[in-house]
Structure to design on (396 residues):
């Protein structure tokens, strides 16, 4: 078999392939299903269920991103693998709303098929070309098979006990990278073996952020199109759109580029990718999804809302800023998280009492969180611009 690995000596070898972008389309549906499922029942129990399903969706996507970081998506076997994962991923996405009801076994079977099947494929694909990498995916296949048993058991179990089965499975999978996929008889992997292409990994995660933001805009536009275009809904619409733009700005203006630079030049890129991209981006994407839910709440009910709805309006932006601050802290050699983001989190915290006391309406709360995003984005942009100006030598 000819090598299926990317030729990293070739210029542009880390470019994201079209087959990878096609695979990502499945997750547009997945993110939409997640936000709609959460919106339908704003309770703590449903939040836990949606969070669990979201983690499963994220692991499927992230493990695929890691795999194509090494494998060349332009090679026919890799492309076929991505298309097969896309088909199974459609069943995964379609079963999300009823994953804790009658379609639990469908969700579990699709998830396990993707996780175990991909690991086995990469193990076979890298073959003798990269024996240490092949052994890593051999270990991953063992871990995914172990957690897969729990996923299937949970899918077959009563919905009331499904949460426990799947929670245990997710704990095992979350511990895998930190335990370096230790397997008796196979020892453990090494972070040095995870020699990722920093540019490719950063771009892939940036594209998932775009997917989440795009879904937010789609939900906002579709909801607004069905409403009466009066003053409150129009203001809510423009506030939501501006909020999405500002979330893009906070992540992509400098954070994404600086993160990519850090990853590309890291002495141990695998360790940086594991922390800053595999784990921290979970918080960022979760924040965007909850923000999409909040935008729809404000559009539908600008004048009143339940405490759960109001917490979603505040929780989404807070989660996003926490994730963005954490990401920039890890990738920019900061001693502390960026001050602009911390101030933004404090400002959102100050909105909790007037919001839950119903002193301000959901519309006013939504506008306030958008203004917080504006403060953070402007503060960081001006601060970094000033630092760059001061760092430039004076011209004679």
């Amino acid at each position: 078999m000819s090598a299926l690995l990317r030729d990293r000596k070739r210029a542009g070898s880390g470019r994201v392939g079209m087959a990878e972008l096609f695979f990502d389309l499945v997750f547009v549906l997945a993110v939409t299903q997640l936000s709609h499922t959460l919106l339908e029942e704003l309770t703590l129990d449903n939040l836990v269920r949606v969070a669990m399903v979201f983690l499963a969706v994220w692991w499927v996507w992230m493990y695929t991103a890691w795999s194509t970081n090494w494998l060349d998506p332009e090679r026919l076997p890799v492309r076929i693998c991505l298309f097969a994962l896309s088909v199974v991923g459609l069943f995964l996405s379609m079963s999300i709303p009823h994953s804790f009801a009658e379609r639990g076994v469908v969700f579990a079977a699709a998830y396990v098929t993707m996780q175990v099947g991909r690991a086995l494929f990469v193990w076979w694909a890298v073959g003798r070309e990269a024996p240490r990498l092949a052994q890593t995916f051999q270990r991953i296949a063992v871990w995914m098979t172990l957690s897969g048993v729990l996923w299937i058991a949970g899918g077959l179990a009563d919905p009331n006990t499904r949460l426990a089965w799947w929670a245990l499975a997710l704990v095992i999978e979350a511990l895998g990278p930190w335990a370096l996929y230790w397997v008796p008889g196979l020892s453990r992997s090494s972070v040095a073996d995870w020699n990722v292409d920093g540019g490719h990994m950063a771009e892939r995660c940036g594209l998932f952020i775009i997917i989440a933001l795009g879904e937010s805009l789609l939900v906002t536009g579709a909801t607004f199109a069905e409403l009466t275009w009066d003053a409150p809904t129009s203001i809510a619409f423009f506030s939501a759109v501006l909020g999405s733009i500002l979330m893009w700005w906070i992540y992509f203006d400098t954070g994404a580029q600086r993160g990519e630079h850090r990853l590309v030049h890291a002495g141990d890129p695998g360790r940086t990718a594991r922390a800053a991209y595999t784990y921290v981006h979970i918080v960022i994407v979760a924040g965007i999804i909850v923000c999409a839910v909040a935008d729809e709440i404000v559009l539908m009910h600008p004048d009143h809302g339940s405490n759960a709805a109001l917490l979603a309006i505040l929780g989404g932006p807070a989660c996003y800023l926490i994730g963005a601050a954490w990401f920039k802290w890890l990738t920019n050699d900061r001693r502390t998280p960026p001050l602009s983001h911390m101030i933004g989190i404090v400002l959102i915290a100050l909105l909790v009492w007037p919001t839950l006391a119903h002193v301000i309406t959901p519309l006013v709360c939504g506008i306030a969180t958008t203004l917080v995003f504006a403060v953070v984005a402007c503060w960081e942009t001006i601060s970094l611009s000033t630092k760059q100006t001061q760092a430039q030598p004076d011209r004679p």
Observations:
- The radius of gyration is 22 Å.
- Residues 18-193 form one domain.
